[in-house]
Structure formats: structure tokens, C-alpha cells
Amino acid sequence: MQMNRLTVDVVIPTFKPDKRLHKILQRLMKQTYPIEKIIIINTEKQYVNEDDYSYVDKIEFHHIRQEEFNHGGTRNMGVSLSDSDLVLLMTQDAVPATKYMVENLVRPFEEDNDVAVTYGRQLPASDCGMAEAYTRKFNYPDYDIIKTSNDILRMGIKAFFCSDVCAMYSRKGYNEVGGFPNRTIMNEDSIFAANAIQTGKKVYYVAKAEVIHSHNYTYIQQFHRNFDLGVSHRQFKEIYASVKSEEEGIRLVKETAEYLIRHNRFYLVPDIVIKSGFKFLGYRLGKMYDYLPRNIILKCTMSQTYWQDYKVNK
After folding, report:
1. 257-272 pLDDT, tens per residue?
2. 314: pLDDT confidence band, cut at 50, 70 and 90?
3. What φ, ψ does residue 140 adopt, rounded to 5°?
């Protein structure tokens, strides 16, 4: 191993973690690239017994209250607790697919000082529906992508796409970009990527850095998620107003429908059309959140605690 090897810490925010967290930790311990420290930022101490994780070397638990959690601020806290060259952010439901995940995420930083963040490929879990599995393929192809400011016009909002489900940040790039916004309902990863690209840095998608991660959202869950997405795009309109966004959603629906028809699953097409309608409605309402009364917002959001001290229309 080279003497000037870049050091890596891992930060994982948790809330009522299940057995997948054990699987994640076990696979992180077997990575070919060494990890210095694993930092768990856990929401509500009563939901975690630290002794259950005593088999993990160099693990640290830091507990916060539910009202203190924020997608950006909590991750900033995690990064501040690390002194490594690189910080890998993950979620409690993203399981490393191979022992080379960390090694593959590190490689671009060793080759190019302009890389601010690398992020990995998300593979569908065994219980993932066919349409959702195609969405994973659509958003996470099997080839690397390097995104710079030159790609914004061509790629639109996809130029800013990044996911803290599995993303590694350089200390230098994180500091120069200014980290994450301390208060954001979601999308802290995309906001960072946009700021990085617009300041001349690179965002690197690493197809061989694989994690198993997918969801089977109901119509209502998808509505709530896209409401919060719309809120984020409204609050950071200086980033998102200049790029195409809804066209990408339309392309996904069209290509998913074509994929299902090609595989003789045409009966699934109405489901994705309905789900897309819930996504669109949630997103549009989210972009109008500052015109909505608080009681309506609380019915639409999936992030109740975010709004506790936020000033919106009564």
C-alpha cells in the first residue's frame, strides 16, 4: 500500500435501524480498502443498543433527538466528527454489493484532484418490482459518468444528480464547496453536487461501486416523497430554475413503459402511469408549498419534524 494512502471514514445516519445495518457493517469490515472509523449519527438513543454492535472495530455512536435531525445538518455533523481525507456517506438500508465498493469509490480521487464527490451504483433488492428495477437501471447505468459544468446544458438536472445512499466526499472538495446546507428537507447531495460543478469541480459516478438499495413505494408514499422534492427545488431555486427537470421524469415514464411492453408486462403500464401522476402532483404542490397552509403541508410531507419551527402560512 502506498505511503500517502488517502484515509476513509464512514458516516451513517440511522433511525430505528433493522438487521440491514448489521449486514452493512459486516460488509464494510471486509472491504479491500481500509476504513479508519465508522460514525453512526443515530436519531433517538432508545432505538439502539450499542452493545449489539460491539463486534465492529472503531465504531462511534452519536445520538441526537428527532427534532434535531436534518438531511443536510446531520451529515455536516457526521463529517465534522471525522478527520479523514475522504468521508463515505451511506444510509442504513444500502448494503455493499461487493468488497471492492470503497476501493472503487476512492480511485477517482487518486487520479484527479478536481473530483469533489464520487457516488455508487444502486442495484435493486430481490423484492424490487420490475418497474422500480428499471428505474434503478435508468438512474444508475453500468458505465462511469464524469460530470462537469460543460454537461449542464446537455444533461439538465441529471448533471447535478448524486445520492448520499452511497457517496464519498473529499475533505478538500467538501470544505471548498461549503459542505451541505444545514437546513434542507432533502436533496442535500444534489445541492452539493450542483455547487461543486458550478465552481469548476467534478462529480464522478462509479458504476463498479455497487450497493443494494431500492424501494417499493405506494402511491401515497411517492406523493409525499415528491412533495418534499418539490419543496427542495423551490427553496433552492437559484440552483434548479436554470436546468430542465420535469422532462427527465417524462422520459423515465416513457422508457419504463416501453421496457415493460417489450418484456410482455404491459399490464404493469397503468400502475406506472398512476404512480407518475402521484409523483407529478406531489412535486407540483411541493413547489407551491409557500402558498399552502401549514395543515395542508403536514398532510403532504413525509418529513413532519422539518416543519416544526418553519414559518409557513397558517
Report:
1. 999 999 999 999 999 9
2. very low
3. -130, 80
Dihedral sign for Cα 91, 289, 140, 239, please.
Answer: negative
Whole-angstrom CA distances from 214 to 93, 114, 166, 223 are 9, 30, 12, 17
- Residue 311: the pLDDT is 64
Contacts of 144 (CB under 8 A, 6+ apart): 204, 205, 206, 207, 208
Q: Which three cell numbers stand for residue 110?
A: 487518486
Residue 93 has pLDDT above 60, yes or no: yes
End-to-end CA distance of the chain: 60
- How far is residue 299's CA from residue 68's CA, in Å, rounded to a whole number? 21
Helix (H, G, I), strand (E, B) or coil at 233: helix
Helices assigned H by DSSP within 112-245: 130-139, 152-155, 171-177, 188-198, 219-235, 237-240
Look at residues 94, 92, 61, 57 and name the one whose alpha carbon lies nearest to residue 78.
61
Three-class DSSP category at 314: coil
DSSP SS3 for 14: strand
d(CA 84, CA 172): 10
Q: Which residue, 242, 211, 216, 234, is CA-closest to 289?
A: 234
Q: How far apart are CA 115 and CA 117, in angstroms?
A: 6
CA atoms within 13 A of residue 152's CA, in its CB half-sphere: 19
Q: Using CB atoms within 10 A of its CB, is residue 206 exposed (0-12), middle (13-18) or buried (19+)?
A: buried
Count of C-beta atoms within a 10 Å radius of residue 309: 7
Closest by alpha carbon to 109, among 195, 11, 206, 13? 206
Q: Are 197 and 170 in contact (CB under 8 A)?
A: no
Burial group, residue 92, by CB count within 10 angstroms (0-12, 13-18, 19+): middle
Mean pLDDT across the stretch 156-177? 96
Residues in a beta bridge with 203:
117, 147
CA–CA separation, 72 vs 180, rounded Å?
A: 5
pLDDT band at 308 (very low <50, low <70, confident <90, very high): confident
